[in-house]
Amino acid sequence: MRLSELFTKTSKTVPADETARNAKLLIRAGYIHKEMAGVYAFLPLGKRVLDNIAQVVREEMNAIGGQELQMTVLQPKDIWEKTDRWDDNKVDNWFKTSLKSGTELGVGLTHEEPIVDALSEYISSYKDLPIFVYQIQTKFRNELRAKSGLLRGREFTMKDMYSFARTQSEHDELYEKAASAYRKVYERLGIGDITYRTYADGGIFTNRFSDEFQTISDAGEDTIYIHEGKKLAVNKEIYTDENLAKLGLSKDELVEKRGVEVGNIFPLESKYTDALDVYYSDERGNRQSIISGCYGIGISRLMGTIAELLSDDKGLVWPVNIAPAIVYIARLGDSDEVHKIADDLYQKLEDKGIEVLYDDRDARAGEKFADADLLGIPYRVVVSEKTLESKQFELKERTETEVKFVSEVDLIKSLASIKTN
Amino acid sequence: MRLSELFTKTSKTVPADETARNAKLLIRAGYIHKEMAGVYAFLPLGKRVLDNIAQVVREEMNAIGGQELQMTVLQPKDIWEKTDRWDDNKVDNWFKTSLKSGTELGVGLTHEEPIVDALSEYISSYKDLPIFVYQIQTKFRNELRAKSGLLRGREFTMKDMYSFARTQSEHDELYEKAASAYRKVYERLGIGDITYRTYADGGIFTNRFSDEFQTISDAGEDTIYIHEGKKLAVNKEIYTDENLAKLGLSKDELVEKRGVEVGNIFPLESKYTDALDVYYSDERGNRQSIISGCYGIGISRLMGTIAELLSDDKGLVWPVNIAPAIVYIARLGDSDEVHKIADDLYQKLEDKGIEVLYDDRDARAGEKFADADLLGIPYRVVVSEKTLESKQFELKERTETEVKFVSEVDLIKSLASIKTN
Questions:
Q1: Which residues in chain B come in under a pLDDT of 70?
Q2: What is the ipTM of this complex?
Q3: Is residue A254 within 8 Å of residue A234, measured between CB atoms?
Q4: Which of A262, A274, B181, B396 could covalently link to B60 via disulfide, CB atoms 3.0 to 4.6 Å apart?
Q5: Which domains does chain A have, with CATH numbers?
Q6: Rounded CA gap, A308 and A38, in Å?
Q7: Is the pLDDT of residue A419 over 80?
Q8: Phi–psi pair at A223, nearest 5 degrees
Q9: pLDDT of residue A15
Q10: For B123, nearest residue in chain A (alpha carbons)
Q11: Burial A29-38 (b: 16+ CB within 10 A, else e)
């Protein structure tokens, strides 16, 4: 995409009420627009990053047999009453609305009830299970405070997956498959080494712990205790001697850190399926409970976490897998020859399927370099009178200070190989 | 995808309150699930069709320079008050909700106001225009009645595009570009020949007509008068002698039909930009109004329209461009050899990037053929003892009754060529 055509621009100002580092950077770079606290629009470059993250998550969920669907935002009251999650005294972050007739509706905050209800039409026999389904969808939670940018939204994009199994051991297998898929997601997003599988409270209807994935960050809301050797952690909420003994851990091996919860997986036992009266018949025709689990990843929260952590004093630093473009072409100089060579390179890279941000604006070098850094594009190529003379291009990685000079052939080859990784 | 793994199944029953042909077929085929009147979830195969339609629309909007973004569902009251569209007496199909603090919020039904407000940060000079932006997003409208399945949803997927131009002639150019892109969309979706650009009321703030795209259907809500020779139509709402004279048409050339509005494009003059105080400075530094337009396509409505119109008494008939799979492999017979050959063909087609629904279930031929027809997959291939003997496969198009026998090489070649069209 040509920057002369992109309608967003970088800026030095952010809304006065914005305190979160991730949101400040993303607003300055023109990736997001603040509609209100905890509610952000995604502008073209931000939408690309969000979609790229969603696609990584989608591929990993598909790889373990997840079937993608799309549940509704509007929610009927009756199914939530069956599980006692309608009353605002029980679930305190509903947004609610109503039909013209006065019928109350919920605005979707999670989807256990409607998923179980929809699946009830398709589950009767043991032959219909197991099932692994997921969606990537906008969710709504009426948070009292929302000051952390994309880390805690009132409106946010989430991947929520649900598993339904015949037995505890079948459930456990799906659960661990999902945990492995989550690990792959964080690795592909460049935060694998700072993200810990973390034991947390399992909730009121299980004796088991749940599993969170916590990325180490001072911006995080959670306190966790990490075991570096075992690459795992324990959430403060279950940090008791009794629980640690169960987990085979002791306090002197653990280090306190702040974490952002970038994923959670939860054993639901048969709470929702029983409550909504969904069972299966086993081989002998006996009615059996269905064991389920739920698995969440905040897509927009991941974008905020990465913006928060993988940035420096110059701006954002996107991993190649989710960057809105792989390379930023900074065209310097006004001569026809520079324009022609830069246009030509842009076209060749796009033809190879390499996403480019082409800075074809009339602007000074300093301004272009500052924008390339703020936008966080992994590679920057300079086309100028000087590079024309040497018949090479100047190439720099976003995270390096040194520049390299490379021929066109080598440039295209190396950028194409990055793209296909 | 293997049907033995897909959790949905076809069914002979539909909800008692469902009267719309499109919804009945889509529910029976397991494409959608009815949450409540006008609110449908998209199950795996339905989600694929919806995404495929969205992708066709996206490609055509990108081709005319549209920049994709994603505005928010939650809407602050103040920007809608500036255009006098907040009051329920003015706009009667809002869903509204509120923050914990009591602050009222709207649930997005369209996005002129927030788009103009967000763009105001990026528009100051004539150099910043023109701009073409769009989103593909879930919208909410509090319809009193919603009995037409996907043709009129309370929650639905829409592509809404907005243009911002410096002059009326620049606006007109963008407007006609969008109209051409719309025509391409309908052609790619297989309804080009029954869809008419239709003059309709332009609303209160313009003397111009708006343009609708109406697909001929008895299920449609609109009455239109078509001119077959000119391939255009006139909506009943402006069907007066005076208007027809302006359009150079006379009543005796026109034929009355029912139509589904599958798109609309609307000249907004400078109503929203002026109301939200967004102007640009021209070359001489003078403040000028911005001329805008809005352009809608109901993605889920298109899915319903196609389901309604391109179906027969056996079920759905998806055009190749949006079908959830190109080919349905019906495996008949239990021998190891049949299983092996069918598995092998499935793998070869998937490796070529050809989407397959592989019916690997233990079921009778009649049941498999009925499902292939109900699901509306464009091609059906039979693998059976009989086809093994002849070393060929039996191939049938969904819309034909004749079967053909083809070699594996020819089968793969012809299916691959369809896919890349």
A1: 205, 419-421
A2: 0.96
A3: yes
A4: B181
A5: 21-309 (3.30.930.10), 327-419 (3.40.50.800)
A6: 16
A7: no
A8: -105, 125
A9: 86
A10: A7
A11: bbbbbbbbbb
